[in-house]
Design a protein that fits this description.
197 residues, mainly alpha, Arc Repressor Mutant, subunit A, Tetracycline Repressor, domain 2, elongated, 2 domains, 9 helices
Length: 197
């Protein structure tokens, strides 16, 4: 069994990272305490403090970095698939967003990042932009170059679309008369119709 530089076996460390990532992504930075992470990872909280000397702030930065990097890779894979047009590319993005735990960008910026050091917050903020909005901006810019759409503020439009897609997660199941993907496709259809050149 491999042991890393902070003394956790690779298996234990991975359990800690997975537990911390799941909790931070779902609840946010302030709502998670070290005891929650230790319990979810199946270790005693005192040993977690011993093995993660930077404590909760450094653990948050580490797991959110890896979470956002994976999210970014998934979004890029979604837009790289061969597509006929802007609508089908955005439907791939919508399918990715619907299939994965929300990033909760608003909570991330308004709550989580204000609770950590500014330098770390800047890193996470930039990663969040590159994971969530930049892929959509890229798709919109390409569509604009092809003459499919025309708009002067594609960054704002990308943010609006991403926020709308991510908000579909918040609809309680009992109020769904369509699949979440169908709702995403309808949002994308309305979005594109309003942007056509």
């Amino acid at each position: 069994m491999l042991v890393d530089e902070v003394g956790l076996s690779s298996d234990s460390r991975e359990r800690v990272l997975n537990a911390a990532e799941e909790l931070f992504v779902k609840r946010g930075y302030e709502a998670v305490i070290i005891k929650d992470i230790a319990k979810a990872a199946g270790i005693h909280h005192a040993s977690l403090y011993h093995h993660v000397p930077g404590g909760k702030p450094s653990l948050y930065v580490e797991v959110m970095t890896r979470h956002l990097q994976r999210y970014q890779a998934g979004m890029h894979a979604a837009i790289q698939q061969p597509q006929e047009n802007l609508e089908s590319q955005l439907q791939s993005v919508g399918a990715w967003v619907i299939a994965h735990t929300p990033v909760n960008v608003i909570r991330l910026h308004n709550s989580d990042l204000t609770a950590i050091k500014a330098e770390a917050a800047d890193i996470i903020s930039n990663l969040a932009f590159e994971a969530t909005l930049f892929p959509i901006v890229t798709v919109l810019e390409a569509a604009q170059q092809r003459g499919e759409i025309q708009h002067e503020s594609l960054g704002y439009m990308a943010g609006s679309l991403f926020a709308s897609l991510e908000a579909i997660h918040a609809i309680p199941d009992q109020y769904l008369d369509l699949s979440r993907q169908s709702i995403a496709n309808q949002i994308i259809e309305v979005f594109i119709r309003g942007l056509k050149a």
